[in-house]
Amino acid sequence: MKKSNLLLLAMITTCIASVARAESARSCADVANLKIDGVEITKAVPVPPGTTVTPSYPGAPSTGPLPAHCRVDGVIHRRKGADGEEFGIGFALALPEEAAWNGDFMMQGGGGGNGVVAYPLGASYSGEKPALVQGFAVASTDTGHKAKNGGFDFSFMRDQQAYLDFAYQANAEVAGVAKQIIAHYYAKPAAYSYFVGCSTGGREGMILSQRFPTVFNGIVSGDPAMRTGLSNLAIGKWIPVSYNQAAPKDESGKPRIEKFLSASERKLFMDSLMKTCDARDGVADGEIFDPLGCDFDPVVLVCKAGQSEACIAPEKVAAIKKAFAGPKNAYGTQVYPGFLYDAGIAMTGFVPGLLAMGQNGLFGPYPTATEIDVDKEALHAGDPLVEPASTNLSMFSGNGGKLIFFHGDSDPWFSPLDTLGYYQSLGAANGGADKVSEWSRLFLVPGMAHCGGGQALDRFDMLSAVVNWVEKGTAPDAVIATGQAFPGRSRPLCAYPKHAQYTGSGDSEDARNFRCK
């Protein structure tokens, strides 16, 4: 009898547990019927395990296999805008199966002018596995418009609300909706929320920390597009005009910027730079891990009287120094920071290094002018709605928020010194550098171009770093980096102001034999 009662009790308990599980997690199809003011759920479909996501652009790798998840798509505030065009904040949300969900929410940032709802994977700066595979519920958004002419289509800005959504409103709105869907689907809210982005996504992360300080517990902001108008002034006008002043001319007298330096001159420059600064971290390995301590001066390459080989003409060296020093106005005031002399500045590709400019820039031909009115050019280059300039993060930090920055030292688009300058200003405004390091850290990435690539170890897990900081209180003193440019190599990326230094013994390809100095 006693045994029968126990069996009956076990059956009842199992039944109750089954009912509880059924009530605790909704079906994917059920999400399609969820009603949220101003939100249309346009699709909610189960995605089977093993699915592979095709690359978002030519040459990019596919991502997969993915775990089973519910893919939710929707639009917030659909409306007719300027010229009768349809606008609305498009978003997507990937919800892992309940047993696989780690209880957290992660949102991925955009890039360029946005305008595309990327697959919500959380695949960048999350280590070997995308955030979705790690069990995060992941969201993405187009920030309020559809790109019609590629990733740098800014025609949507003629519509004021679309401009405001892109500038700062959309990500917070999507995060709020995603949290509601998550709470509905799992019958409980996300424990912690994270945002990870680079370039435009890095700017978005900064905006969120400054204007919506309680939306995310942890934010990773990479190579942030902080001041696009001024960075475009630097790389699109100041630097090419500086080079034009010393470049050879064509038959019509126009400078040929692509012939400013020959391949042998670039090699001479880079060999001299690396000889001066490469080994300062204890090992000559093709990377400069102490860029702020690099005191390389190109003047050592100037041709002396009667010398014509293994040197560079003085006017060319002067042009390089002027270019890398960054734009200054007529009064000598720095308008935008200079750029670092780093291992990747001579790289070629879609966005070439600053020492390897061709005829065309990212947005068209470089100017052939040899003079520039910086005061005039800078007058309207700033945009306070888009730019994340505030250093008052008292609510974000006071609420336990953690903010990680990283920036490639060879980024040819946005100067790492601009991000460093902002980080230093956080210390000045928030009780000093030591105080700020309790909730924010900056990591410089040697050799890395814009958000990746270059002569760099550009694979690292900033997501885990910020999660461990938020949830376990473990501040990231260093993050291990690897990369295709140096197979088999690992290095610690050290939190500013420290850098990786070889201990002097052990395998110099192994991060374990380096310390943060």
Report on the structure:
- With 517 residues, the chain is of the alpha/beta class.
- It has two domains: 28-227 and 384-477, Rossmann fold (3-Layer(aba) Sandwich); 230-379, no CATH class.
- The protein contains twelve helices and 18 strands.
- The chain has a nine-stranded mixed beta sheet, with helices on both faces. Strands 14-15-16 form a three-stranded antiparallel beta sheet, with no helix packed on it. Strands 2-3 form a two-stranded antiparallel sheet.
CATH class of the largest domain: Alpha Beta
Q: Write down the overall mean pLDDT.
A: 93
Q: Gyration radius, to the nearest Å?
A: 26 Å
- Counting DSSP E segments of at least 2 residues, the number of strands comes to 18
What's the CATH architecture of the largest domain? 3-Layer(aba) Sandwich
CATH homologous superfamily grouping of the largest domain: Alpha/Beta hydrolase fold, catalytic domain
Tell me the number of helical segments per DSSP (H or I, 4 or more residues long).
Answer: 12
Give the percentage of residues in beta strands. 15-25%
- End-to-end C-alpha gap: 72 Å
Helix content percent band: 25-40%
Question: pLDDT below 50 for ≥5 consecutive residues: which ranges?
Answer: 6-24
Widest beta sheet: strand line-up: 1-4-5-7-6-8-9-12-13
Order of helices and strands: HHEEEEEEEHEHEHHHEEHHEHHEEHEEEE
Class from secondary-structure proportions: alpha/beta
Main sheet summary = 9 strands, mixed
Tally of individual domains: 2
